[in-house]
Amino acid sequence: MGTVVANSVELSSANKENSIVQSPEELDAGALFVLKSRGSWLHCGYHLTTSIVGPVIFSFPFALSLLGWVPGLLIIALQAMVTFYSYNLLSVVLEHHAQFGKRQLRFRDMARDILGPKWGKFFVGPLQFAICYGAVIACILLGGQSLKFIYLLYNESGKMQLYQFITIFGAVPLFLAQMPSFHSLRHINLASLLLVLAYSACITTGSIHIGNSRNAPRKDYSIKGSEENRILGAINGISIIATTYGCGIIPEIQATIAPPVKGKMLKGLCICFGVILSTYFSVAISGYWAFGNQSKPTILYNFMGEDRPLLPIWFLLVINIFTLMQLVAVTVIYLQPTNEIFEKWFANPKMDQFSARNVMPRLFFRSLTVIFATLIAAMLPFFGDIMALFGAFGIIPLDFILPMVLYNVTFKTSKKGIIFWANTLIAVASSTIVVMGAVASVRQIILDAKTYSLFANM
């Protein structure tokens, strides 16, 4: 009986901490255990940076090769402004509802409360789950490819297959997935932020060194191909840039902030976008300057040269080690929505988070989640093409269309005001990017179809 009383007190304390007005019976373990509201605005900045900035920035020089200098840099800058504005709108909506005693901790909670229960249950919830779990699979695949890259640096005739490296990499998030809450990742995500700055600096330094060396490739900034290919390439470039700003878990990140939350998310966004501006532009400009229209889908392929590496082996090794370490953090942060769902379904909110009753299902389902993601990554090494299609249909609607709708509905913005029409314009433009991104992704899938095979050694 004493245990029951103690747990009731703990729940009451947790409710007060999270600024939630529901009774303990209405709260689920996902909200109580995974989305603990104990973080500061600094922690929020770490989470945001890890969820947005990753090794996908290695494709920025390639995106510029499809668009050219002026259009490419303008799109990177414009997308940064739209993204900052969009995420701030989401934060304002969340703060508004929190002030009225209804703090929304999840994206599907926002959709349910503002647009109706079907939106949360049948659209936002499944879409967010697909995007986040797809990101987990894609990160494990990238981690395996990075490990293989390191292996081949020292053993060009090595016989190990890609699926073996994917399995090795998957063992690390299998362990870190057991971190009990989103908030407990704050130190890992601080390390992730520093790693992003480190490998971006290495990429920029390497590009400048190669561009000024005697072995520098001929600098040609014209856009290659027929008119049709240039148009489709430009669409692909815009899609690459747009999806690199995607997050999909803004409400869950804001849920980690200790109340009062007002103004803290904006500070976290400023940290994140400081990192974005310093890394996106440095990698894009230096890489495209060095390699021009010879830029490859990832700049690391350019660093390898045609016959031999253009940079010292140890330098390439450092870049890949930093990348591997940061990929682990990205993998774990995108596991959080899945962890939250399993906690909601299988944990008991009336018992202690670290009781055997709650630890055992957590250990089983989180391990199963990572093992299954690793299996998919090993089986489908072309998953990146599929994820690009998912990104077009998922990331852009969640991050650049839905925030505009949620803000307009929440604050009932006047159709005569500039905010309403700015939000509407962004939503319409983003819808166009969805179609463009889908076209580019399907085209890439068709082009790469000849390499498709289970457990392919790509």
From TrEMBL:
Family annotation (InterPro entries): AA_transpt_TM
Q: Which UniProt keywords apply?
A: Amino-acid transport, Membrane, Transmembrane, Transmembrane helix, Transport
Write down what this protein is called: Amino acid transporter, transmembrane
What residue intervals traverse the membrane? 46-67, 130-154, 160-177, 189-211, 231-253, 265-291, 311-335, 363-380, 386-406, 418-440
Q: Where in the cell is it found?
A: Membrane
Alphabetized Pfam families for the sequence: Aa_trans
Query: Which Gene Ontology BP terms does the record give?
Result: amino acid transport
Show where the Amino acid transporter transmembrane domain sits: 38-446
Give a yes or no for keyword Transmembrane helix in this entry: yes
Gene Ontology CC annotation, any one:
membrane
Coarsely, its chief localization is: membrane
Decide whether keyword 4Fe-4S is in the record.
Answer: no
